[in-house]
Amino acid sequence: MNKTMGILIIVLALVIAIVPLFTDCLANGRALTTADGRSVPMKCHWTAIAEIGLAVPLALVGVFNLTSKRKETFRTLNLIGVALGALVILFPTVLIGVCMNAAMPCNMIEKPALILSGVLVMGASLIALAGSRNFIEPAAA
Amino acid sequence: MNAFQLAWKNISGNAFRNGVVSLCALLLSAFALFTTLVMRGAETSLRLTIDRLGADIVVVPEGSEAKIESALLMGIPARFWMPEENLHKLSAVQGVDVVSPQLYLATLTGAECCSVSDMFMIAYDPGSDFTVQPWLKGEMGNGLRLGEVVGGNYISATDGEQNIQVYGYLVTLKENLEPTGTGLDQTMFLTFDTAYDIASKSKSQAKSTLVIPPDSISAALIKVAPGNDPHAVAIEIMQNVPGVTPIESSDLFQSYRKQMTGLLKSILVILSVTWGLSVVLIGLVFSMAANERRKELGVLRALGATRRFVFQSLLAEASLLAFFGGATGLAVAGLAIFLFRKLIMVSLDIPFLLPSPVSLLVQIGVGLLLALFSVNLAALFPAFKISRQDPAVAMRE
Fold first, then answer.
1. Are B231 and B281 contained in the same domain?
2. CB pair distance less than 8 Å for B15 and A4
């Protein structure tokens, strides 16, 4: 169970890191133009960058789920997984946000993809956490 | 130990087999829910739009039928005009009870004088209107005054203010309509007086003037007198008023209905193929598992378990896997549809409205039943076959 959830978390970490970069407004050629004529990315782009920062530890949680052999490690790893999953949801909704206009690509793809991925990460971590209760540690050599 | 307890123990023992069966149930239930929700959501949306329009017949200039459908359903601004004198001709047609004119306008694209780009605006005549005003009276107690507007569900004013800039003119958003999942959600409703006021002031305040051709209207909404057939009245209009097309409310959005029917057929074919393949795959996995477990089940029989008990425990195992896989698939599909509803509308080019909680629960229940039925159907033959085997032969092999 933990191995399956570990692989799922790694896949979701990749989705969280990659999808926002191609679905934010900047990737779709939209940016704010300042009074002096400069183009500035909108906040959905900064959400996409912040999500990379979350995807890296999340991928490590997945990798360690594959390699760990101790019950306590699984428990700690998956608690971190739940917290990271919650942050994946909070960045596009509360902490940074995305653009106001509901018709923008960040609102149609980036935000829903991140919320769905965050929910799945939390679900996978909780399942792995529950599964770790019955985990039998290998005997020491 | 009963059949379910035994099934539960078996499930925790074989991750690969359980994973494949659950995944099939997950995909099947998720796809079924997705299909049902999207198609029913589109149908509900169309019905709500026709109800909100409240007219028996909509009369538009000849050749503008597709434009009005796109405007009402997808919020794509439409501009077409016909002479105002058509109203008198329409009133004179036998069977017509009330005729109310409407003007279809739009904000400018990317202009600073408009808060929202390309927003569809419907101006109505308070003197004859029977579609917008009854709703307003119910919600607000009175109609709209000069400079006041009502917005679709997606229309919002700027932060902290209730004002929206239209052609440099500040209108006050009084209320938002309930969502319909169509272009009406992105539409602003205003009175003729406000529209003409915006047009006159736009000459000095806007980047470009709002042009409303004199003595012109965009469409006329018709309420048929009680006891008259809307179809007969529509034919009467076609014969007596040249240059216009009457669209009966039942015929409205025909092109979208055809598109949806085509989409539904394709989806049903894909769903049937997926269902067939899933049942075959689950059947194969269960056959392999049953063969692997011949000795184990033989021992169970030798210890006194009846054929019925073995059969029941195998079906209980299938039901548990179908339940977990199906429930997960339904939860993920439900969440995905809720989150990606706007993308679904844009990419499939159909209106969409989420169903009521009761309807959603019914559809989830049906999805779960489909998963349970499919997995049990696939597991029926292997379970029957293995439960009939002789325990002595099974243990020797």
1. no
2. yes
Q: Are residues B170 and B272 in the same domain?
A: no
How far is residue B287's CA from residue B303's CA, in Å, rounded to a whole number? Answer: 23
Partnered with residue B171 across adjacent β-strands are B164
Q: What is the pLDDT of residues B320-342, one digit of tens each?
A: 888 989 999 999 999 999 999 88
Percent above pLDDT 70 for chain B: 95
* Chain segment B109-136, per-residue pLDDT in tens: 777 777 777 788 899 888 888 877 766 6
Domain boundary among B203, B218, B242: B242
- Which residues in B lie closer than 8 A to residue A112 (C-beta atoms)? 336, 339-340, 343
B332: in domain: yes
More confidently predicted of B11 and A71 = A71
For chain B, report the end-to-end CA distance as a whole number of angstroms: 26
* B372 three-class SS: helix
Neighbours of B141 (CB within 10 A): 7
Sort out which chain B residues have CB atoms less than 8 A from A103's CB and list them: 342
- Residue B388 lies in domain: 3-47+257-396
Query: Which residue in the set B12, B336, B342 is minimally distant from A116, CB to CB?
Result: B336
To the nearest whole number, what is the mean pLDDT of chain A?
88
C-alpha distance from B116 to closest chain A C-alpha (Å): 9
Any CB–CB contact under 8 A between B19 and chain A? yes
The structural domains of chain A, with segments of one domain joined by +, span 2-28+40-134
Count of Cβ atoms closer than 10 Å to residue A95 Cβ:
11
Q: What is the pTM of this model?
A: 0.74
**B115 and B195 housed in the same domain:** yes
B198 assigned to some structural domain: yes
Q: How far is A116 from chain B (nearest CA, A)?
A: 7
Q: Which tens digits make up the pLDDT trace of A44-56?
A: 999 999 999 999 9
* For A120, nearest residue in chain B (alpha carbons): B332
Domain stop point among B214, B242, B270 = B242
| Cβ pair B19:A4 closer than 8 A | yes
* Cβ contacts of B147 within 8 Å, gap of 6 or more: B169, B170, B171, B172, B194, B197
Residues B183 and B261 occupy one common structural domain: no
pLDDT tens digits for range A93-135: 999 999 887 778 899 999 999 999 999 999 999 998 888 777 6
Q: Which residues on chain A place their C-beta less than 8 Å from a C-beta of chain B?
A: 1, 4, 102-103, 107-109, 111-113, 115-116, 119-120, 134
Whether residue B311 is contained in a domain is answered as yes
Predicted pLDDT of residue B78: 83
Q: Inter-chain contact A120–B332, Cβ cutoff 8 Å?
A: yes
DSSP A7-56: HHHHHHHHHHHHHHHHHSTTTTT--EE-TTS-EE--HHHHHHHHHHHHHH
